[in-house]
Design brief:
Structural class: alpha+beta
Radius of gyration: 27 Å
Strand content: 25-35%
Mean pLDDT: 85
Strand order of the largest sheet: 4-3-2-5
Largest sheet: 4 strands, antiparallel
Low-confidence stretches: none
Distance between the termini: 78 Å
Number of helices: 1
Number of strands: 7
Order of helices and strands: HEEEEEEE
């Protein structure tokens, strides 16, 4: 700016370039933050799935009649875990994750819902029962 209050073309051009760079940085940082939230959400639900799988495996590895009580967390939002023959599936917010449980004999198909308590038992016929 000179003494008369006029703005030079170079000043306007450099200000325009700074605004473009700042808006690009803002968009980039927003996408990084959203990506980290998605990763954190996926990991927390994956840890829940691994926890349930570990508890089922622990009941399976102990003798007949062994049981274990678990309570699924409710602070991670609503989710459902489906337990089938040798597979666990978690569904939350339109997303899905799976985990395999080899060498299990699960009796039927069970649906576990967040915030509820369940009892995992190894029955007399060596099958895993979830109530």
């Amino acid at each position: 700016m000179d003494n008369k209050g006029l703005i030079s073309v170079e000043y306007i051009f450099s200000l325009f370039i700074v605004i473009i760079i700042a808006s690009g940085m803002l968009f980039y940082s927003e996408s990084i933050i959203n990506s980290s939230f998605n990763i954190e959400d996926g990991i927390s639900h994956r840890l829940i799935l691994d926890y349930v799988g570990g508890q089922i495996s622990q009941v399976n590895s102990n003798g007949v009649g062994y049981s274990k009580h678990i309570k699924l967390p409710s602070d991670k939002g609503y989710f459902e875990i489906t337990v089938e023959k040798s597979k666990l599936t978690i569904e939350y917010d339109g997303k899905k994750g799976e985990s395999m449980l080899p060498l299990l004999n699960i009796d039927g198909r069970y649906k576990l819902i967040s915030g509820r308590s369940y009892c995992i038992t190894k029955a007399d016929d060596r099958k895993i029962v979830i109530t």
